[in-house]
Design brief:
The chain is an alpha/beta fold and 340 residues long. The protein contains 14 helices and nine strands.
Length: 340
């Protein structure tokens, strides 16, 4: 499989791809025209890339039986012609995210490894059908995996074995496709930094999600990208840094604001541009705030009963525009930073 990075995509110098997840306006109700308008807004700021998150149970509902309908729908909605970063999310943040019959099977068991490789191969074969429209630039084989192993440390050794085998398999079968795993920025540099440095050591690229935690003043957090993005590049030690997801809630319930979000947007995009090809991809989450059933679905996936209000304030207010379609200050900052 050939990979490459589309050039001349502002903002940024060198080879950089910007993505913006085109969540549509959903209030007072979600209409087909809202989806069209969301994609038009994304195109208006030259956000030509796509982050495609794939959950294993969604594509393999029965052992050995693959169903691509949900993935085809995502590509149709968000754009099959966009150069993409793909995340095969095993684990997926706090969830193991594997088919039901593998829930209790160790990560390093022969049965698990075979099924995992078969699913990876099937996924990449499916996506290769879209290569004539746009390539897969990078592949991550786990999403925010540090979050999962906080609660399941006994599974980490088996997971390391799986990752080593998966990297070897992919290097043999998909030469030229850079692979790695995704960790949160906080987890990568936190108490278990040595663990993640060890696992990242054999990766071709270093994947991060970057959502600054709300344990400091929002204005302070908004300035963090000036320090944090260069730290990621230094950590990668010459390998590309893939900013799989970047976001900042504007919710006042978290002590944030539209102004703080706008400052964060400006600082991220300006620093990203200065870093050039060292950070070839940046995926921004989201275009519009999410509301209603979609907000509830996301909160239920990530939260427990003790912190649902915090997760709602975070997840459902990441948009650069309100759920009714009106722009926030963050959207104006995004437009200004991309030169549109």
């Amino acid at each position: 499989m050939t990979t490459g990075v589309t050039t001349a995509m502002p903002p940024g110098t060198g080879e950089q791809v910007l993505a913006l997840t085109a969540t549509p306006a959903s209030e007072p109700s979600l209409e087909p025209s809202d989806v069209v308008e969301a994609n038009e807004l994304v195109e208006s700021v030259d956000a030509a890339g796509l982050h495609l998150l794939v959950r294993w149970p969604e594509i393999e509902p029965e052992p050995g039986q693959f169903d691509w309908s949900s993935l085809e729908e995502k590509l149709q909605i968000f754009g099959a012609g966009r150069p993409r970063v793909v995340t095969f999310s095993v684990p997926d943040t706090a969830h193991r995210a594997v088919p039901e019959d593998l829930r209790e099977v160790p990560f390093d068991a022969a049965e698990f490894e075979k099924r995992y490789f078969d699913a990876l191969d099937a996924l990449l074969d499916f996506l290769s059908g879209y290569d004539s429209e746009a390539p897969t630039l990078y592949l991550s084989i786990g999403n925010e995996v540090d979050e999962y192993f906080k609660g399941h440390p006994g599974e980490l050794s088996a997971y390391e074995s799986l990752v080593d085998s998966a990297f070897e398999h992919l290097h043999q079968t998909r030469a030229g496709l850079p692979v790695g795993i995704t960790t949160t920025f906080e987890g990568t540099f936190g108490a278990d930094a040595e663990t993640w440095a060890r696992i990242h050591a054999t990766a071709d690229a270093i994947f991060f999600t970057y959502y600054p935690p709300y344990d400091a003043a929002a204005t302070t957090l908004a300035e963090q990208p000036l320090v944090d993005l260069p730290a990621m590049v230094e950590y990668a030690d010459g390998r590309p840094v893939v900013l799989q997801e970047v976001g900042f809630s504007s919710s006042v319930d978290l002590g944030s604001s539209e102004a703080a979000q706008a400052e964060f947007v400006t600082n991220v995009l300006r620093t990203w541009s200065e870093l050039g090809a060292a950070v070839p991809f940046l995926g921004w989450y989201y275009l519009h705030d999410v509301s209603g059933d979609r907000c509830e679905e996301m909160v239920n996936y990530f939260a427990d009963d003790s912190n649902t209000s915090v997760w709602e304030a975070f997840l459902c207010h990441l948009g650069l525009r309100h759920s009714d379609g009106t722009p926030k200050a963050g959207w104006d900052a995004f437009v200004a930073a991309t030169g549109e």
